[in-house]
Amino acid sequence: MWWPRIALALSILAAALLFFSGFGVRAGVWPFRVGFGMFAGAMLAGLAAIGAASIALAVPRLRHPRRTLMAALLIGAASAAMPLEHLRRVKTLPYINDITTDTQKPPQFAQAKPYESHFAELQQLGYPGLQPLVLAAPPAQVFARALAAARAMELEIVAADEDAGRIEAVATTRWFGFKDDMVVRIAPSGAGSRMDVRSKSRVGRSDLGANARRIQEFLTRVGSERGATYHPRRDDDRLQPHATGGLPARRAGAGV
What we know:
It is a single chain. It is built from six helices and six strands. The protein is an alpha+beta fold and 256 residues long. It folds into two domains: 2-92; 98-222, 2-Layer Sandwich (TATA-Binding Protein), CATH 3.30.310.80. Strands 1, 2, 3, 4, 5 and 6 form a six-stranded antiparallel beta sheet that branches. The protein is elongated and about 75 Å long.
């Protein structure tokens, strides 16, 4: 029957678009805008495959071969799942690509990057539990922990200055291979130390929560030792709807 073949063809197209959307960008075959277009195409083709397979399974005379339809349904659903999650995060997370534990005086990169004033309000709405890490250990020990945590997370260390209490690194996103910059600032605080972190995406206006999750993981790794006062909330990285009334207009974007 031609209907199951159409459903299967749509599902295979969706899977191919999804795979090559990220592979092509990472390999430098095409720019990220083309990759995004293929990413969106994978969602549409996957949904079409789900629809075609569902209709065929519901109509007795179109139901055979059943295995082909089930394969089309599963492949289509798997291919559409990732782009749909991407879309959900774009709609529910703050449109920001620069996250820091200190919104009043963000850690600065070697090549200074401006921090937009409205980001602080959006960050508070989306990630209210993100805060500095305060430890009872001296700065030298905290620096060693932070450097070990960065290496454990497979970040590319760009600079590590123990005297200045500063570490700068680059993270690479898994799917499209985008580069996000991260800087760590460690300073004396009473008898111990305070550590602040900033993570900023180079591409897009929305990071889909990637920078906040990266900072949270980093703080959790460093603060797992005794003496830390940072306790990440279980919902720090959940998708949270937020009101944006009265905030400056922003361009949509994404980073995966």
